Amino acid sequence: MASEISITPCGPITGSIRPPGSKSLTNRALIIAALAQGQSTLTGALESEDTEVMIDSLRRIGVSISHDPDRHTLTVEGNGGKFIGDNTEMFIANSGTSMRFLTALATLGEGSFRLDGIARMRERPIGDLIEALQQLGANIRTEQDNACPPVLVDGQGLPGGQATIAGNISSQYLSGLLMASPYASSEVQLQVDGELVSQPYVRMTTQIMRDFGATLEENDGCRFVIPGSQTYRGREYAIEPDASAASYFWGAAAVSGGKVTVQGLSRDALQGDVGFCEALAQMGCQVDYQADHVTVTGGPLRGINIDMGQISDTVQTLAAVALFADGPTTITGVAHNRHKETDRIGDLACELRKLGATVEEFEDGMTITPGKLQPAQIETYNDHRMAMSLALVGLRQAGIVILNPGCTSKTYPRYFEDLAQLCGS
Ligand SMILES: O=C(O)C1=C[C@@H](OP(=O)(O)O)[C@@H](O)[C@H](O)C1
Ligand SMILES: C=C(OP(=O)(O)O)C(=O)O
């Protein structure tokens, strides 16, 4: 892809789109199908860097996965939780889900595994997950003394027992532990210590575990009991379109004063990020939820105060929309966004200021006061969501250039083509 892309302003956007499959569901389904007894067919799967590194890593530990790109289908031959490592290297680029879920999975195997990624992945914390796995009897550590990848696992199967897990940095630790736990030799009891961010992803995890036949008990969303020596059962599984990706198209309706329908999602979707529509409703958009699609109609936008701790992947989308509101928007509850593909508070504030906004940054969020919009070259920090969200500003303001647009390949390689098609250009 070109080293930059200029966004062409357009009028109110009217259209309908089905985004690619959910990253979170595809990577969960791959982990669970790999562990299962029997074959699984995953339809509507995401094909992007984050799922490719997951597939590549699972193949390296002996899981057979075939891909039919025409049908967006992955067929996985589950190996019943029997993995042999022999200094097996897994390269995970910058996929947080893959790093955290595969770290937990590797402790179920026999032998040695090393999990590594790009430079930014080596700055993304994983210490809390390592400590919890150690409490369950795993022989695991980080290569450096910094609680970040590379991760080294010397697997002898996971004994099980009790562990506490911190939930304030990432919910992915808990999700990884949960998905691996049915394959521990004995019962696993997990207690979340303190705050749990991104809770809807944990509900997604427990739901998909049950969908593949696992049993677990759950109390107040912070205590889990998972009987050991279980097996997932392979099955056919349909993956929802990605709700975080959908936020850009709903956002496009909001900023352009148009009407956009996203197919394949509903209020009852497994993905919490459908909740982004409620944020748009608070800002003045109309939202129509149907059983298999959700339509957002833009209108005059007002600034809001909102805790986005449960829908943090949509913070950048909301920030782009906030630039078109009649007053300030305050976003809180997302301190954990500083540990993602980039510092999604500090770096986002910097790009919003370039666009003409006044931004007051705090530890867990920011207040965005819209100003006169101005042309800008947007730095993406190799963060797909920075590119996808701030492109929306270019639908209304001339002279918006997105640098390194290829970074969307992490979750949405065809994003700019799909956006252009929706805008009718
Ligand atoms: O479990 C998941 O699939 C995810 C959880 C969230 O991460 P955190 O729990 O780190 O907020 C989210 O940002 C990420 O894109 C996907
Ligand atoms: C935070 C994200 O991804 P991950 O943590 O899976 O790398 C994201 O997709 O916005």
Count of discrete structural domains: 2
Percent of residues in helices: 25-40%
Please outline the major beta sheet.
4 strands, mixed
The number of E-state strands comes to: 23
State the name of the first-level CATH class of the largest domain.
Alpha Beta
Could you report the average pLDDT, rounded to the nearest whole number?
Answer: 97
Shape: globular
Query: So how many helices?
Result: 12
**Can you tell me the CATH architecture of the largest domain?**
Alpha-beta prism
Strand content: 25-35%
Commentary on this structure:
InterPro entries: Enolpyruvate_Tfrase_dom (IPR001986), Enolpyruvate_Tfrase_sf (IPR036968), EPSP_synthase (IPR006264), EPSP_synthase_CS (IPR023193), RNA3'P_cycl/enolpyr_Trfase_a/b (IPR013792). Pathway: Metabolic intermediate biosynthesis; chorismate biosynthesis; chorismate from D-erythrose 4-phosphate and phosphoenolpyruvate: step 6/7. By secondary structure, the protein is α/β, with parallel strands linked by helices. The chain has 2 domains: 4-20 and 242-423, UDP-n-acetylglucosamine1-carboxyvinyl-transferase, Chain (Alpha-beta prism); 23-214, Enolpyruvate transferase domain (UDP-n-acetylglucosamine1-carboxyvinyl-transferase, Chain, Alpha-beta prism), CATH 3.65.10. Helix content is 28%, strand content 27%. The protein is built from 12 helices and 23 strands. It has helices spanning 23-35, 49-60, 96-106, 127-135, 172-180, 199-211, 243-256, 276-283, 315-322, 346-354, 384-390, 415-422, and strands spanning 4-6, 14-17, 37-43, 64-68, 73-79, 84-91, 110-116, 140-142, 151-156, 161-167, 188-196, 217-219, 223-226, 236-238, 259-263, 286-289, 293-297, 305-307, 329-332, 358-362, 365-369, 376-378, 400-403. A 4-stranded mixed sheet has the order 2-15-17-16, covered by helices on one side. It has a 4-stranded mixed sheet with strand order 4-5-3-14, covered by helices on one side. Strand 18, helix 9 and strand 19 (329-332) form a beta-alpha-beta unit. Helix 3 (96-106) runs parallel beside helix 5 (172-180) and helix 4 runs parallel beside helix 5 (172-180). It is globular, with a radius of gyration of 21 Å. The two termini are 18 Å apart. The model has no long low-confidence stretch (mean pLDDT 97). Bound molecules: shikimate-3-phosphate and phosphoenolpyruvate (PEP). Residues 94-97, 313, 340-341, 385, 411 line the site of phosphoenolpyruvate.
